[in-house]
């Protein structure tokens, strides 16, 4: 079945540091890939997405590239801010499927 | 955007609960997810044009409804302690390549 594996957290960085959160996936078809962010006490917000191999999703300084050869969709940001502190979820929706399959989430803590 | 009510709820084991969701304007598909503490969301089911359109690995005591105005309900009967979680509703436009947009969730505590 479909699955998503994310790096364990928490990830603790200083402000303006470079961020990478690793995400790898297993799917039977040609999935669409997503990153969602969850701020404390809130629901999920779509951060970015990519629907086919080699697509790059980007938003608010965050980027992720759909790598079919390595089945990966790593999230990166060049310079994090305290306001980026949240839990980040990688997710996929496989071809013909209704549901999103989520990873377990990675908590990011950015210190001033 | 997607709205959910109530924001918080406390119930006791064995009771029944109804959670509500209003979809984003123009969206005809709604999905429900359960997010246990410290975990990623798990798919419960999806409704499209008032019919259940897919279901995850949840027992029949989890049921739903979708109304003509694309609002939706999640009903859980015979509550168990493990049902304590954040319940998320997500709406989408049903085109097949759609993105799901999430509401803020309802946090349910079962005592």
Could you explain how this protein is built, in words?
The complex is a heterodimer of chains A (112) and B (111). Chain A is mainly beta. Helix content of chain A is 0%, strand content 50%. Chain A is built from no helices and twelve strands. Chain A is globular, with a radius of gyration of 13 Å. The model of chain A has no long low-confidence stretch (mean pLDDT 94). Chain B has 111 residues and is an all-beta fold. Helix content of chain B is 0%, strand content 52%. Chain B has no helices and eleven strands. In chain B, strands 2, 4, 5, 6, 9, 10 and 11 form a seven-stranded mixed beta sheet that branches. Chain B has a four-stranded antiparallel beta sheet with strand order 1-3-8-7, with no helix packed on it. In chain B, strand 9 (85-92) and strand 10 form a beta hairpin. The chains are: A mainly beta (112), B mainly beta (111). At the A-B interface, strand 5, strand 6 and strand 11 of A face strand 5, strand 9 and strand 10 of B.
What does this entry show, briefly?
The complex is a heterodimer of chains A (112) and B (111). With 112 residues, chain A is mainly beta. Chain A is built from no helices and twelve strands.
Largest interface: A-B, 22 and 25 residues
Low-confidence stretches of chain B: none
Described by the principal axes of the CA atoms, the overall outline of chain A is globular
Structural class of chain B: mainly beta
From the alpha carbons, calculate the radius of gyration of chain B and give it in angstroms.
13 Å
The low-confidence runs of chain A, each spanning 5 or more residues with pLDDT under 50, are none
